[in-house]
Amino acid sequence: MSASVQQLALVDCNNFYVSCERVFRPDLRHTPVVVLSNNDGCVVSRSNEAKALGVKMGQPWFQAQDLAEAHGILALSSNYALYADMSNRVMQILSAFSPRQEVYSIDECFVDLTGMPEPKAIGLQIRERVNAWTGIPVCVGIGPSKTLAKLANHIAKKHPRSPGVFNYNALTPAQQTKLLAQIAASEVWGVGRRLTAQLQAQGIHSVQDLRNAHTPTLRSAFGVVMEKTQRELQGTACMDLEEAPSAKKQIIASRSFGQPVQALPVLQDAVSSFVANACSKLRAQNSQAALIQVFLQTNRFRKDQPQYSPCLAVPLPQATNDSLVLNRWAAALAERMYRPDYLYKKAGVMLSDITPAGQHQTDWLEPTAPTQTPLMHALDQLNQRYGRGTVKVSGQGAYSAWQMKQERKSPNYTTDWQNLPCV
C-alpha cells in the first residue's frame, strides 16, 4: 500500500437513538427496542433484536402493534435533547484522534487518519474509547475516499469476523475486487431504491460492476454525481472533508401537530416557535434572511376531510435575523392564509435569500431598522445555557394543543438537573 493513500475513517454509532436510551437503561440491553419519530408515528431507530423480529425502518408504529405485543418490543418517543448531547460527547472524543474531522450527521463523523501508523489499531482504539467514555457502540470503516470509507463501515458492521473495524486500504487489489463483487450496488452511499433498479437495467448489480462500468455511458445515463461516485469507488477522492459546515442557503423549521388544530391563535403560537428555531439557526451561522415563507397543511391522508395547503412568502424590507421582526411577519402571513373551516395538521417556516449578517443594501425610501443584535445574543446565550425555550417571544408557548405527542419519552438525563440519574 502506498504511503500517499488517504486513510479516511468513517465512525458510525450503532443504532444511535436506541444506544443512547440503553446507556441510562442497562436493563434494556437485551430487550427489543425501537425509537419513534415525531408524534410517535414511525420507527426511526431499532435495536438488533427488533431488526431480527422483522421491524422495518420507517414502518408506521400502528402496523407493528401486534408484533410488539407478541414479542415484548418496547417503543420510546424521540428524545432529541438527549441524542444531541450524546452526539456532542462522541464528536468531542473523536476530535482528539485527528486535527481534521467532518461531523457528517448526528451519529456519523469522518476522521482523517492519513499519515498515522496502524490506522486499524487507531480504529480499535476509537471504538474502545467511545464505548468506555459514553457507552455508545461504534463501528469504524477506513478507505481512500468517503464512499469507500462508508462502504468499509458497512462491512465492519455486517461481517461476522469483523471486530467492528474494517480497513479497505489493507486489502490487495485482488482482495478488493473479490470483496466488491460480493456487495450489492444498493449498498453504495447515495444509491437508493430507484437508482438501484435503473442500474440493474444497465446490467450493474454489484459494487464491482459499478466500479468497472463504462464512465461516459454512466455519466450520460445518471449524471456527474454518479461519475464521482464511480471515481470514489476506484479510490480517487472527489469529496473533500468539510471541517467547517457551510452556511445554509435555506433554513426550514416545521412539524406535524400532536392533534389537529383549528384556532388561529394556536396556529400562530406554533409558527412563532418555528420562527424562534429558524432564527436561532440563522444567528448561529452569523447570517440574515431577506425572505420569509410560511405554509399550513391539513392532513392529506384524511380523505374524509376538506384539504387546504396554502403557502405565502414575502420579501423583507431589510434582511434580518431578529426573532421579533420575523415573528411579526410570520404571524401576519398565517393570519392572511387562515381559513376557519379546516383542521390543520402541520405548519412551517422557511427563511431564504440568506446572506452574511451585517451586509445591508441601503434604501433611501426605507429607513434603516434598529438592530436588536445585543438582545438576540443574550436570548441565544440564555437558551444555550439553560435549554431551548427558556427565553421566548411574548405569547410563544401559550398553547399546548399543537405540541408534539411524546407519550413514551425518556427523561432528559444529561440536559436537565431534575432528570439527572442517581446512583
Head-to-tail CA distance between termini? 50 Å
Oligomer: single chain
- What proportion of the residues is helical, as a percent range? 25-40%
Number of helices: 14
Largest sheet: 5 strands, mixed
Low-confidence stretches: none
Strand content: 15-25%
Structural class: alpha+beta
Output the helix-strand order. Answer: EHEEHHEHEEHEHEHHHHHEHEEHEH
Radius of gyration: 24 Å
Q: How do the strands of the widest beta sheet line up side by side? A: 5-6-1-7-8
Instruction: Choose one word for the global shape.
Output: globular
**What's the mean pLDDT score?**
90
Number of strand segments: 12
Explained architecture:
- The protein is built from 14 helices and 12 strands.
- Helix content is 37%, strand content 20%.
- The strands form 3 sheets. It has a 5-stranded mixed beta sheet. It has a 4-stranded antiparallel beta sheet with strand order 9-12-10-11, covered by helices on one side. A 3-stranded mixed beta sheet has the order 3-2-4.
- The longest helix is centred in the middle third of the chain and has 21 residues.
- Strand 2 and strand 3 form a beta hairpin.
